[in-house]
Recover the amino acids of this structure.
């Protein structure tokens, strides 16, 4: 297993943006700014302040996630009848009246994916900070999964926006967005930034021996 | 620009090492066959992939995507009917209404992820490929490649397609739903985007060569 050398140990840096292999300048621990000779982006041995930034954004996202779920995201008014929907009640409505299959998709995108992101990034942050050698390959896969599916949570925001644009029948029927949808949109954006700030290379730092 | 000189230049420019961006493992690079994917031995991430498509074919797809994108943006997506009254909406109606309905954040998000970023991505890709056909770097290559990298996951047309589907099912409970051309354009756009998603853009750095007129407009 020692046949796989790491760039850091060899004094090399891979550019985040263009993948160029660069030689790390001078002292490895120094904070001197070095930029990629090919694309001009700043080179980092590891993403700067990955723990602090990811934690900060993740906590901010979680704070937004509470009103996103508690507050209604959409108001349906027809013939003076007002009905406010939260994310969860929207899923239930779709399950009962529409199609259960689509309800499962919306449930996954709006409720499971954000929860998975909080849990996954939290787990990664804590285990990496402790230098844990536990299930490294699986954790690396988990991070890639979070990156891949993260933006699908925007689904419900687009549904509310499109229904607002479509259901404009005055007194007969009207759909309006409510503040919950704004908080939900912010949750998605903040979790996306959080997962970008995390550096998956931290998974492989720390204790080398307990690896498979 | 003969093919032979171009190939030699590309081969000389191809670096011998690859660093996995996910785990920092150094790999020695070996040439890939068409459609082949190199994976990291340590963490399993994709190191690089050789696209099975020629530059010309990709450029053709980009141009198609541009036409389809214009249609998806300008044409109405769905029409709803209630008691003989009909309302149709385009993407821009949606953005405008969110802005005036106290959801400016949503309006900005939708405008950025469904219009500005996808358009920028397609235009930049087309511009770069137009020059890459002959192994050249387009004016502004460096800046545009970095920009393309940062646009990354911020284009969400495919999420919007699913959102439109959910909206139709929800609206169908109370209204007559008539699908408009825009929704078909979006479906086609979704397929095209999936084809692009398999592209490894970083290879453009190796496949093209700097010209001595970088500063020219």
């Amino acid at each position: 297993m020692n046949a796989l050398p790491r760039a850091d140990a060899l004094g090399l840096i891979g550019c985040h943006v263009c993948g160029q292999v660069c030689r790390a300048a001078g002292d490895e621990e120094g904070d001197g700014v070095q930029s990629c000779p090919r694309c001009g982006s700043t080179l980092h041995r590891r993403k700067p302040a990955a723990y602090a930034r990811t934690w900060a954004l993740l906590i901010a996202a979680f704070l937004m996630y509470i009103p996103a779920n508690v507050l209604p995201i959409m108001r349906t008014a027809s013939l003076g009848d007002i009905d406010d929907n939260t994310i969860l009640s929207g899923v239930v409505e779709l399950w009962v009246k529409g199609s259960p299959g689509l309800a499962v998709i919306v449930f996954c995108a709006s409720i499971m994916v954000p929860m998975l992101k909080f849990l996954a990034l939290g787990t990664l942050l804590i285990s990496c900070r402790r230098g844990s050698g536990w299930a490294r390959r699986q954790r690396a896969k988990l991070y890639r999964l979070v990156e891949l599916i993260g933006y699908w949570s925007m689904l419900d925001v687009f549904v509310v926006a499109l229904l607002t644009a479509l259901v404009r029948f005055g007194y007969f029927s009207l759909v309006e967005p409510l503040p919950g949808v704004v908080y939900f949109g912010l949750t998605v954006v903040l979790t996306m930034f959080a997962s970008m700030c995390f550096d998956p290379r931290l998974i492989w730092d720390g204790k080398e021996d307990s690896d498979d | 620009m003969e093919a032979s000189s171009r190939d030699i230049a590309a081969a000389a420019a191809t670096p011998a090492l690859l660093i996995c961006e996910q785990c920092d493992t150094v790999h020695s690079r070996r040439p890939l066959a068409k459609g082949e994917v190199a994976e990291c031995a340590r963490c399993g991430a994709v190191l690089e992939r050789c696209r099975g498509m020629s530059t010309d074919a990709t450029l053709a797809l980009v141009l198609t995507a541009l036409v389809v994108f214009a249609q998806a943006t300008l044409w109405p997506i769905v029409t709803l009917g209630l008691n003989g009254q009909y309302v149709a909406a385009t993407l821009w109606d949606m953005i405008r209404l969110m802005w005036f309905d106290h959801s400016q954040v949503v309006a900005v998000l939708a405008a950025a992820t469904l219009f500005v970023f996808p358009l920028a991505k397609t235009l930049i890709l087309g511009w770069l490929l137009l020059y890459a056909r002959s192994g050249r770097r387009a004016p502004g290559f460096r800046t545009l490649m970095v920009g393309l990298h940062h646009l990354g996951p911020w284009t969400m047309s495919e999420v919007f397609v699913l959102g439109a589907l959910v909206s139709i099912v929800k609206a169908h409970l109370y209204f007559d739903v008539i699908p408009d051309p825009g929704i078909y354009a979006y479906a086609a756009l979704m397929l095209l985007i999936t084809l692009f998603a398999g592209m490894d853009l970083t290879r453009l750095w190796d496949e093209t060569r700097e010209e001595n007129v970088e500063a020219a407009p």
Summary: Residues 1-45 of chain A form one domain. Chain A has two domains: 1-45, 48-204.
